[in-house]
Design goal:
The structure is a single chain. The protein has one domain. It is elongated, with a radius of gyration of 19 Å. The protein is mainly alpha-helical. It starts with a helix and ends with a helix. It has seven helices and no strands.
């Protein structure tokens, strides 16, 4: 029963992740095109976009302990017992950090927390990437190749999230201050649209990765 519930939750979270990404992308491009609105209204919409974007981060973080729990129950992961409990504890801590960063994003504390959040993601990119590559080459720590490839693909999935945030930072540097002050001209609006278009291409890569991860889990082809 427990395995079935976690398996159901893992599938649900993957759908939650993909669906949230699609909604965020649509809302983002609406805000970039809404240049006839007053700056204050556009920034309210943008803040709403950032609030909705938390669903993406919720799903990303939840997928880690759920996926590793499934692998442990299948006998395909060395992270069992106390190690698996530690994975859940660290995931909850990361979840708290992610939300604290978002809620404090307009304060100096938020900027410091964001640096910690980025650091966590760098560590996870390295951990998933290396463990996936080593597993594909040696059969340890994840003996099944389809699972090893899934683990490996988590690294670029997290990296894509950082790529999107990079373009959001560019928007803050190049366009959003002028929009907030209601003095944005064609140049600032063009820079805003350009940054979000480039972020969309990163999302296309992320969507491809997530579909591949889902297919590997469902088909277990090798």
């Amino acid at each position: 029963m427990a395995y079935s519930l976690v398996h159901w939750a893992h599938v649900l979270v993957m759908g939650y992740w993909l669906g949230s990404e699609l909604v965020i992308n649509a809302l983002t491009h609406y805000v970039t095109r809404a240049d006839s609105l007053p700056g204050a209204e556009r920034m309210k919409l943008w803040d709403f976009v950032l609030d909705v974007d938390q669903h993406v981060r919720n799903a990303m973080i939840m997928s880690v302990p759920l996926g590793l729990s499934l692998a442990a129950w299948m006998g395909l992961s060395p992270l069992t017992g106390g190690w698996l409990v530690l994975v859940w504890v660290l995931s909850i801590a990361w979840f708290w950090l992610m939300w604290a960063t978002h809620l404090q994003r307009k304060s100096p504390t938020g900027r410091r927390l964001a640096a910690w959040d980025w650091g966590v993601r760098y560590v996870l990119i390295a951990a998933f990437g290396l463990s996936g590559l080593v597993s594909l080459a040696t059969g340890w720590p994840f003996p099944s190749k389809w699972l090893a490839l899934k683990v490996l693909l988590v690294a670029p999935a997290i990296a894509c999230g950082l790529g999107v945030r990079h373009y959001i930072r560019l928007a803050y540097q190049q366009a959003l201050p002028a929009i907030a002050a209601d003095r944005a001209g064609p140049g600032e609006n063009a820079l805003f649209r350009s940054a979000m278009i480039r972020a969309t291409w990163v999302l296309v890569i992320l969507w491809t990765i997530l579909f591949t991860i889902g297919a590997l889990g469902a088909l277990k082809p090798f």
